[in-house]
Amino acid sequence: MEIKVLKDILAANESISREIHAVLSKHKVLAVNMMSSPGSGKTTILEKTIESLSPELAAGVIAGDVATTRDAERLSRHTAKVVQIDTDVFGGKCHLEAQWIKKALQSFDLEELDILFIENVGNLICPSGYNLGEDLKVLVLSVTEGEDKPAKYPAMFSIAHAVLVNKIDLLPHLEFDMTSLLSHLKAVAPGARVFPLSARTGEGLVSWLDWLRTGAGG
Ligand code: MG
Ligand code: ZN
Questions:
Q1: What mean pLDDT value characterizes the chain?
Q2: Minimum-distance ligand to the CA of 73?
Q3: β-pairing, 81-86 with 162-166?
Q4: What predicted TM-score, i.e. pTM, was given to this entire model?
Q5: Count of domains forming the chain
């Protein structure tokens, strides 16, 4: 019976996800679901990204966090609108669900928004099962995590439109095999764009920003 229940939950999520996508498309808002394990640098990437896109593109953020508002506070310094979903209220869930995104959208003026980032809960397992009405799924992987992550979490990486390989400024200090990462990625996510970058130094950010701008303008 448990399997039936899970199927119902996923079916309901899928239908709300389609609703969200329709609303966002109508208002020409590009939605980007950012996923990663904890500590990969999603929030820093978003800070730099939002700052760089401004003022040509107005960004909003829905930030999912299990227990704190730290990320939302950091992001609200860079954009007018941040809505935090505290998953504690829902029992400390380890992923975001479409019903909460739908609710959070009520806090935005979609007419004024060009791009909406959804910062998912740091987790490489279940966020892959929940569509959130987004246009783009972006995986962030930092080089400190090791090059075999895509092979260990293929479900997660296989759905990515883009993979941001963050913290490349640390490469001289690590035994990280970039060639091996790229071949793992090619195996599980052959269509994904790969952007090696450092949110800290700004290296490589331009290609990622250009890719976003193309998506937002298209
Ligand atoms: Mg964060
Ligand atoms: Zn979960």
A1: 91
A2: 1
A3: unpaired
A4: 0.93
A5: 1
